[in-house]
């Protein structure tokens, strides 16, 4: 093994060496979770590979290959592409907002129609933001990261896409962008006093935001979260049915393919946002606890990886990806168990859906790249490229 | 902080150390978050799991009510007179239709008559609960049923199924006594609630029918049965995914109700009416069993089961002969001359010697002249009944006064209702002094002597119904017991017995006198002779004719010939047979019918009585043994000599004048 810093020059750049450096614990956990997702989708498809399970598994296979490929890429390339990528994605988000290329689906105008392909720039914006913030922090001191006027720049890098995406209105993505950015600023060293002040401001700001700025359907989600029994057949239905699914699972669950809430379609969005409820229903406390523990271990291993990086870019980028992943897990988990309002946040690797899995796998590709190249030093990084 | 050079090595270390601290905090926060989720999982899945399991089961399983088959109603010989038949119907489930209007358009092409009722259908469908099927047409033909099934794929939310519908195979024959079932209305539910009854949920089932009249109404509860349930697994759209046979409960059919009616007698009784209006009651004089109870004209109760069209209902309700009214129980009429035996009985009870003779010279005077329609000369009681002499009974009535007549009337069954298990009886009125005091004010409170002669011939305020007339005749024929009528023979196999009959408060020989008189009525020279010959050999019928004024006549014919229907007299007849050993009593009221005397009531009574007798095995044996030839009868020969066939039907305006003066 060439885990020492004292290896021959060029030794670490050999592909076989790099491949050997892949963290198989991470890949194992990712595969396990994607496998659980496939299992659940097989069950939800009335014990059939169609229409979801096969696609989910194939998609994961491709993305796992992509992840390994990305892990081979030297972080300097991530570093150099950070600002241009961020810029291009920001323009695409703006195009969705302000030009007829924006395409409406499911109540929010969040698709970009490029003629040959339709993409959701907001999904990729999250990755672009993580890379851009990592690059910015790479070239700034601890003192600047704590508290200085220069923090207006990362704040702006977060704020602009947040507002653009929120205007689509894709509240889920905007929230993830905002929270991921905020988490990165905190991890990079933002002063506790500033954090305290920001939290206080947010607490003061949320109620008027809910009452006056949100769209009706968004406000309903929040109000229904606070009191789902208010309208059990209408907007509160999702939360109630999801709680019934999870709760009725009990300790051991109803058994594979036997979840009545899921199989008889009482549970809405059961193959996407509410798939964790199906895990809870069919595999019970034991199953859902195991899944949550896997997520927690994955996050802790990734955090450890981030700390081993020799470059600050690597550290911050990996931490950003972890924050982003952890937010998905926690928000989705809280949502399906009635602890958070219903926002369109999927459970990573479990939920069916290409773009969410792609974002997560790209994120872990970056983390893995940071791990494989943990000894790599990066330039100071002034300039745009 | 120093600004030159920008990044000191120490600063790099400081930045890394800061990051490490923050990642530890971040890791801790993540663990706390996951811990919170695990805690919530434990709360939902370990501590509250029972509650959520219940909710889940409630989602998953649905109890589909299975309506119970209604109990059968049978006649005394086991003939089903109210049964159930399979009926194909089309139902619509609102939430499974994509667009109700469009679905009804398509359905209208298959079943054109649903278009006519479209607004009603939409109202009913919208009023029903979300996933509950609403029947929109029942009694489909097989072709219609298959057409709907064939196009089922194009008609989401429409289904065709088979259920049981109430069926009355004999149509109008039992329309009043057995009644009918109909849709449950809001009023039914309200009435039940007011009575403090528990409302069974089956009542809300759209196909359910409730008893509306007669036996169906009175015995609705035992006939109803017990609803079953199918436990079915449903998906979120309410579609049945699977049936859980272990959790299902079969429906229990309602109790079988057996009536004392005899189907053949009942049918004959309706048949003989033709277009005429009126009622017939046939009773067994020994035990009070009602063999027939008919009101004419009748209607088809099957119409009411699936909802009678307004047009037909209006026609029935507006027809002046009132088919919807049960005339046997609720039609009260003056008994006319059929009441005369009561007056004779009352007088005998007060010491009249039945052989006492009273001279009739055609008139009776009390303040004014009361006419008798003949000059009968000196008559005893038997002769007075035979001739139906007004003077005789007016004389007795004035001697006794109204209270004596009233007392005997009540003893014979008038002025009261009987508990026969169904409602709708009217007691009629037996007037006396007390009644006048109670009902009127001022001068009218007193009984005027001038009212008594009419009372003596069954006119005036006195009213009776056909059932009371049958009871009265049965009591005369029975001779000893105060027979009470019985209609319900058994419910669910449990025999419905009435308490033992009391003795009549009369000497048997008094009733024998009445029977002698009534035998004379149907013998040669009697008022009912011509139409009372059964032609069953030695088995003969005794009876009493009656004509009741329907209105006050000015000058002119009382016969009624040529008058509008509603102005003609009512014709009544009561009879029992056989004369030597009475078995059956019959009472007939023909509203505004015939030409007085034994013209309308008697022939009908004869026909019905014949069926009743021939169905009685003992009677049949006796008749067959003795032969159908009538024995030598001087009167019959006499009649034949004048060219009148004994058995000729008499409901004929062109018929020769009756043998006796009508008006009795």
DSSP helix fraction of chain B: 25-40%
What structural category arises from helix and sheet content of chain B? alpha+beta
What overall geometry of chain B do the principal axes of the alpha carbons give? elongated
**Which two chains have the most extensive interface, and how many residues on each?**
A-B, 54 and 44 residues
Q: Based on the structure, what is the oligomeric state of the protein chains? A: heterodimer
Enzyme class (chain A): transferase
Main location (chain A): membrane
Pfam families (chain A): FTSW_RODA_SPOVE
Protein name (chain A): Peptidoglycan glycosyltransferase MrdB
Structural commentary:
The complex is a heterodimer of chains A (385) and B (664). Chain A is mainly alpha-helical and 385 residues long. Chain A has one domain. In chain A, 66% of the residues lie in helices and 3% in strands. Chain A has 15 helices and three strands. A three-stranded antiparallel beta sheet of chain A has the order 1-2-3. Helices cover 36% and strands 18% of the residues of chain B. Chain B is built from 24 helices and 21 strands. In chain B, strands 2, 3, 4, 5, 10, 17 and 18 form a seven-stranded mixed beta sheet that branches. Chain B has a five-stranded antiparallel beta sheet with strand order 12-11-21-20-19, with helices on both faces. In chain B, strands 1-8-9 form a three-stranded antiparallel beta sheet. The longest helix of chain B has 39 residues. Classes of the chains: A mainly alpha (385), B alpha+beta (664). Chains A and B meet through helix 6, helix 8, helix 11, helix 13 and helix 14 of A and helix 1 and helix 2 of B.
Q: Keywords for this structure?
A:
heterodimer, A: 385 residues, mainly alpha, three-stranded antiparallel β-sheet, 15 helices, globular, B: 664 residues, alpha+beta, Penicillin-binding protein 2a (Domain 2), Beta-lactamase, 2 domains, seven-stranded mixed β-sheet, five-stranded antiparallel β-sheet, 18% strand, elongated, disordered N terminus, disordered C terminus
């Amino acid at each position: 093994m060439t885990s020492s810093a004292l290896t021959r020059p060029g030794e670490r750049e050999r592909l076989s060496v790099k491949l050997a450096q892949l963290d198989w614990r991470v890949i194992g956990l990712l595969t396990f979770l994607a496998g659980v997702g496939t299992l659940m989708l097989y069950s939800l498809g009335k014990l059939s590979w169609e229409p979801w399970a096969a696609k989910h598994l194939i998609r994961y296979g491709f993305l796992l290959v992509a992840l390994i490929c990305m892990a081979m890429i030297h972080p300097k390339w991530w570093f150099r592409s950070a600002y241009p990528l961020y810029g291009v994605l920001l323009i695409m988000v703006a195009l969705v907002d302000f030009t007829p290329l924006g395409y409406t689906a499911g109540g929010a105008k969040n698709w970009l129609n490029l003629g040959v392909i339709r993409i959701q720039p907001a999904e990729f914006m999250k990755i672009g933001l993580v890379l851009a913030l990592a690059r910015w922090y790479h070239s700034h001191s601890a003192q600047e990261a704590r508290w200085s006027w220069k923090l207006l720049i990362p704040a702006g890098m977060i704020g602009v896409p947040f507002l653009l995406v929120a205007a689509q209105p894709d509240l889920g993505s905007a929230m993830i962008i905002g929270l991921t950015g905020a988490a990165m600023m905190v991890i990079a060293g933002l002063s506790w006093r500033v954090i305290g002040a920001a939290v206080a401001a947010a607490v003061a700001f949320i109620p008027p935001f809910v009452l006056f700025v949100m769209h009706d359907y968004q406000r309903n989600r929040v109000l229904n979260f606070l009191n789902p029994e208010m309208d059990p057949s209408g907007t509160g239905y999702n939360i109630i049915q999801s709680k019934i699914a999870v709760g009725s699972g009990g300790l051991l669950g109803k058994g594979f393919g036997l979840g009545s809430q899921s199989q008889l379609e009482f549970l809405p969005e059961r193959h996407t946002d509410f798939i964790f409820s199906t895990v809870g229903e069919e595999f019970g406390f034991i199953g859902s606890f195991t899944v949550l523990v896997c997520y927690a271990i994955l996050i802790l291993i990734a955090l450890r990886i981030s700390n081993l990086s020799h470059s600050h870019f690597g550290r911050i980028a990996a931490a950003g990806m972890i924050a982003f992943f952890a937010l998905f897990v926690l928000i989705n988990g809280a949502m399906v168990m009635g602890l958070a309002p219903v926002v369109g946040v999927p459970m990573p690797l479990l939920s069916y859906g290409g773009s969410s899995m792609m974002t997560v796998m790209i994120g872990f590709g970056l983390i893995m790249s940071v791990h494989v190249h943990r000894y790599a030093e990066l330039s100071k990084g002034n300039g745009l490229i | 902080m120093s600004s030159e050079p920008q990044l000191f090595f120490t600063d790099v270390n400081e930045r890394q150390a800061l990051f490490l601290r923050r990642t530890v905090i971040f890791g801790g926060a993540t663990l706390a978050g996951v811990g919170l989720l695990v805690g919530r999982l434990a709360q939902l899945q370990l501590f509250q799991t029972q509650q959520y399991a219940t909710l889940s089961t409630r989602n998953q399983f649905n109890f589909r009510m299975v309506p119970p088959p209604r109990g059968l109603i049978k006649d005394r010989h086991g003939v089903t007179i109210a049964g159930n038949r399979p009926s194909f119907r089309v139902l619509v489930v609102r939430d499974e239709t994509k667009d109700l209007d469009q679905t009804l358009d398509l359905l209208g092409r298959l079943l054109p008559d649903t278009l006519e009722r479209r607004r009603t259908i939409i109202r009913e469908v919208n009023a029903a609960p979300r996933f509950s099927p609403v029947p929109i047409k029942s009694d489909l033909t097989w072709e219609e049923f298959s057409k709907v099934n064939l196009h089922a794929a194009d008609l989401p939310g429409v289904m065709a199924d088979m259920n049981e519908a109430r069926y009355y195979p004999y149509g109008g024959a039992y329309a009043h006594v057995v009644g009918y079932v109909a849709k449950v209305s809001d009023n039914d539910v309200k009435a039940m609630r007011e009575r403090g009854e528990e409302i069974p949920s089956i009542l809300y089932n759209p196909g359910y029918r409730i008893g509306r009249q007669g036996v169906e109404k009175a015995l609705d509860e035992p006939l109803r049965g017990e609803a079953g349930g199918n436990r079915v697994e449903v998906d979120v759209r309410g579609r049945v995914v699977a049936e859980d046979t272990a959790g299902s409960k079969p429906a229990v059919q309602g109790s079988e109700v057996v009536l004392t009616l005899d189907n053949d007698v009942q049918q004959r009784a309706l048949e003989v009416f033709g277009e005429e209006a009126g009622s017939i009651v046939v009773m067994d004089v020994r035990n009070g069993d009602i063999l027939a109870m008919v009101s004419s004209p009748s209607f088809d109760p099957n119409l009411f089961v699936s909802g009678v069209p307004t047009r037909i209902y209006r026609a029935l309700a507006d027809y002046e002969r009132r088919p919807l009214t049960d005339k046997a129980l609720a039609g009260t009429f003056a008994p006319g001359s059929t009441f005369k035996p009561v007056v004779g009985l009352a007088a005998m009870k007060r010491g009249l010697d039945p052989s006492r003779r009273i001279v009739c010279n055609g008139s009776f005077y009390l303040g004014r002249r009361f006419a008798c329609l003949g000059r009968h000369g000196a008559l005893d009681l038997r002769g007075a009944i035979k001739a139906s002499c007004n003077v005789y009974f007016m004389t007795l009535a004035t001697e006794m006064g109204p209270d004596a007549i009233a007392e005997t009337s009540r003893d014979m069954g008038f002025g009261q209702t009987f508990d026969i298990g169904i409602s709708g009886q009217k007691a009629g009125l037996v007037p006396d002094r007390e009644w006048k005091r109670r009902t009127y004010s001022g001068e009218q409170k007193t009984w005027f002597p001038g009212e008594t002669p009419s009372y003596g011939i069954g006119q005036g305020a006195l009213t009776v119904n056909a059932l009371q007339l049958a009871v009265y005749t049965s009591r005369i024929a029975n001779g000893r017991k105060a027979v009470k009528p019985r209609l319900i023979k058994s419910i669910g196999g449990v025999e419905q017995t009435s308490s033992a009959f009391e003795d009549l408060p009369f000497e048997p020989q008094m009733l024998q006198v009445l029977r002698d008189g009534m035998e004379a009525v149907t013998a040669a020279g009697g008022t009912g002779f011509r139409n009372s010959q059964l032609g069953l050999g030695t088995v003969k019928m005794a009876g009493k004719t009656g004509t009741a004024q329907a209105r006050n006549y000015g000058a002119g014919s009382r016969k009624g010939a040529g008058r509008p229907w509603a102005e003609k007299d009512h014709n009544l007849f009561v009879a029992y047979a056989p004369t030597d050993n009475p078995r059956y009593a019959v009472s007939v009221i023909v509203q505004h019918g015939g030409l007085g005397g034994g013209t309308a009531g008697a022939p009908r009574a004869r026909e019905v009585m014949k069926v009743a007798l021939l169905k009685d095995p003992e009677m049949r044996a006796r008749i067959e043994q003795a032969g159908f030839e009538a024995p030598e009868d001087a009167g019959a020969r006499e009649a034949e000599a004048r060219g009148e066939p004994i058995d000729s039907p008499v409901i004929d305006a062109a018929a020769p004048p009756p043998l006796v003066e009508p008006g009795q």
